[in-house]
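Below: protein 1.
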Amino acid sequence: MKKGYIKQADRKNVLFLADDCRIPSGIGTMTREIMVGNSHRFNFFQLGAAIKHPDAGKIFDLSQDVNQQTGINDACVFVYPFDGYGNPEVVRGLIDKHKIDAIVHFTDPRYWNWLYRMSAELRQSIPIFYYHIWDDLPAPHYNKPFYQSCDLLMGISKQSNNIAKIVLGGKDNYIDLDLPESTTKEAVTSSLPKVCYAPHGINEKLFYPVLDEEKMDMRAKLFGENHAEDVDFVVFHNNRNIRRKMTSDLILAFKLMYDKIKNKDPEQAEKIRLVLHTEAVDNNGTHLPEVIKNVCPEVEHLIKITNVKVSPEELNMMYNVADVVPNIASNEGWGLSSTEAMLTGTPIVNNVTGGLQDQCRFEDEKGNWIDFDEDFGSNHQGRYKKHGRWVNPVFPATINLQGSPMTPYIFDDRCDPRDVAKALYQWWETPADVRAECGAEGRAWAMSEEAGFTAERMCTTIGNAMQLCMDNFVPQPRFTMYNVHAEIKKSKNKKTGIAL
């Protein structure tokens, strides 16, 4: 039986609020991994969110499928599809129906305003947990009421984890949950929010290196039976066609790389390919075929756009066919495509922003994997340059302060397509056997005790944190009184995590 197994009747019941776990978004994918990976410890009831959800009003019992995946025989995993991100009435109904012991929610806190407004009501009897994601500095102090409404904040990246600590305002205002041994009974029974690092993890049984002969079918599928052998170097992009993913910049970088190779060896330049696994046209992004046709016509014949939904097995093959996987998003909470590439042993190019930094393993002066604090909240300005062999990092060429009424300020870390082209070219210039060595190092580190970017490690960390906080939950009072003058005085000395 799986380690930590609890009989269904004895498990805590958890209400999970996030993108529908059956939808192949990053949030949906990770929600599925977390629920499946902890189905032997908790019973899950998910409010499966989506805009204009086609299954709204239905109920899906995934328990038998989860049993088959996990090897247990009494999983309890239900999905309640919902059009939007929920409301107080439906949550009260699910809490009453399933005797919920805790709520965990995931993705941008703006979707959960209504939940935080219920905090005083809910936390009189059950805790609220947040799998915390925030893309960039400056520390979003406008999120402070959200964070204070939670009992547990599990940061998906080192930056997200540090941002929560800065916003909460010093160690007197939160508990740094160091799982499992060093967390004291006094700490977990405190009413303060608990904060811990719980990085995204990928299922290493789905994403792994394959033998060269196993790649041939996918190469033929991507490039055609008669042309697969003509391709020597593949750049693979697996991200949504939305503005912050900077897909047009990647196309331009590919064109610049092509130009440089062509100047050196025109024949070899014709053997590179860019595969864009994304929607060709998206209102949240742009019209990619028009970009290619009018901005980079010289490489139009070398770019393939594929938006067909594929199985995890096929996606694994696509990563294996690739020689490098770039993620140059200007804002990125984590960047699943980079981790998936690492697990397949494929080198990466990452913009140094948000959670993408974690996967570079930048080292400090002592050779330690860097960490962040209130005085050093990001490495996007290049304080540390030494990194893992599996990545060519690209530092932002410009850091712009963006914003909206809901999120008044956030940095936009934009890298220069010319720098991206150089990083891609360096991988093209690297001998194939050396690229393979670098990729293998990336996979080994991702699965190591230090990094722990595996689904099993992620689920264990999250499961342990939730169990600890549920077992030691301190019910909150119906209302809290604040000294307004003291709060105003504190606000004048806020930290942002910016190192200028």
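Below: protein 2.
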Amino acid sequence: MTLIEHLDELRSRIIKVGIVFVLAAVVAWFFRVDIFKLLLEPAQGQLQGKLYVTSVAEQFVSDMKLALYVAFVVTIPVLLYQLWAFVAPAVGDLGRVFTYILITLASSLFVAGIVFGYVFVVPVGVQFLLSWAPDRYDTIITPTNYMAFVTRFLLACGIVFELPAATYVAAKLELIDASLLKRYRKHAIVVNTIVAAAITPSPDPFSMLLLAVPLIGMYELSILIARYVNPTTEVTAHELAREDEVGDRDDEDPAEDEAGEPETDGFEDADDHPENGHERDL
């Protein structure tokens, strides 16, 4: 395909994703009240079901952002499919079954990350932060601040849960294996902590830890996935190590043989020409 044909294909796939996104946003707009109440649940009544606005259009803009956020989450499977369909020819023919497995795995993990964040991470973080020093601070939370905190935190959890899907693709392409991930486990813990600090919407260390723990857990799950995709990698590594040891031993044997050759050759010469030795004695 020429460059123009690639650009034309990319344009058509972007249009498809855009159509799905717009339709999802329109549907989400009609359920904006339910979405608003759902995102207030992690506060568990501390905000009394309401948020304070400080500008004329803030409440309308907040509802628009909620609809767009839900549309983005719903569009993720379509976005992943169109993206993979565009780059798949460049990485070879891996089969239609692999494509379906990849899209299903990535979409399921993204949704699982959002659900995990909504059920476990966000409630703990929101309640902890809202309960901090109530005798010194009066809590007045605006939709811009609260919704941005919750939606970005949920989005970060969804992205964190995509690590096993990325590992599955890399292992399938034989770019990584379980032994490589194990070797750099300590480095990964440090990197994951830094990434958690970078993608958390709040600068406090408590929120960072809430996201760093699942991220490290996803790395450990990625090791298991890599071992499942390439089950013979570690066995092959052990076999290669044994072959190297055997090869080293074989290399040592000829030296020993060479050291013993002179005496043997002397006896052979004496046996092969006994008459020469007898003549010399005479």
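The radius of gyration is 33 Å.
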